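re: that chain from earlier
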Amino acid sequence: MQHATRGLLAATLTAVALAAPAVSLAAPTVTVRIEGASATLLEQTTVTLDGRPTPAPGNCPANTVAAAIEKATAGNWDRQAFTSTILGESHTFTQNDYWGEWLNEKYGGGACSDVVAEGDRVVMMADVSGSSFEPTVFPLTLTGAPARVSPGTPFTVQVDKYTAPTGSPGEGVKAPAGGATIRGAGVTTAADGKATVTLTQRGETTLKASLPGTQTGGLVIDSRSPAVTVCVTDGADGFCGTTKPGQPPAPQPTTLPAPCQTLGDDGLCGTKDTRAPGGSIASVTEQQRFARGKGPRTLAGRATDAQGIAKVQLRLTRTNGRTCQRFDGARERLVTTKKCGAANATFFDAGTSADWSYLLPSALPKGRYVLDVRTTDSTGNVDRTLQRGRNRVVFFVS
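^ sequence. v structure.
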């Protein structure tokens, strides 16, 4: 969800830089964790996405980080592509603070555009921008803890941190986290990130690592790991699912079927489908600049709807000095128009595939371009709301 000017950073750092590849229709199961400025707001939670875009105002595509946040928080966030509030905690860059997005311990390119796959790990954390707009709060991992251990038996854990030195999406430089405190064990890691833990209290103990933050912009925010649970038992003491001699075995939990889930207007669970589909552009990012002769030729993106996609349409306009043009889908070329502006151009068909793509006859020449995508679902609902960075991008060719 990423850094040219400080004024743009609050939006850009957690927003949509549409560099996402096409995704499958399968709904992945992922984990989501929300780390606030002073406490964990949502510990690592497993959710299965449902193939639906997020509700307005974001309307982010399904199978994105935004969709995972929607599922994990039960909709308790601002649902914006440029996220400011999650679970009641807001970060609006008033103190250089914002919500940083990480995917699989790599700095995110935008909650509305980063696509998730089976087993992915999403972390949204309160962060403070550094002097070069780089993140200063990082995801930690805590590994090596056994699921079960005998009382008094020591074990070694490893704490690592993942940094993004330049603040570029996709960065995730792993290094040992020396000086990290492990809550629940009362120990601190050495320079190599290792610490020896000995637990004597029987039953479950939760371990969670944290690394002190630095004073930046008036805020100090610690880096944290997901919580890890270790159960302490000798195997016959009644803890951790064990049974004391002479006692009946513990009852087994029952699993109830999950209820049908619907937003109320998506056609699922017997509801009437009045919800517009979601569309996004993946081949070109907002404000992207291409070198001379390197203009894009393939336009591609993603359309999502619970009931299926019936039509994908594109609109492409170009300005270069006083010359205004639009792409004519029938003639497959740019044609000059009397009036400038996207509103004076027409849409052309780009197929019916959810993972849509359109091959231009040649690379685009010099100019300023506006690319729009409009999607229609199988029941006739049309996504007519244009949002910069999602289904509208402005880009340049030198």
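Confidence is low (pLDDT under 50) at residues 1-25.
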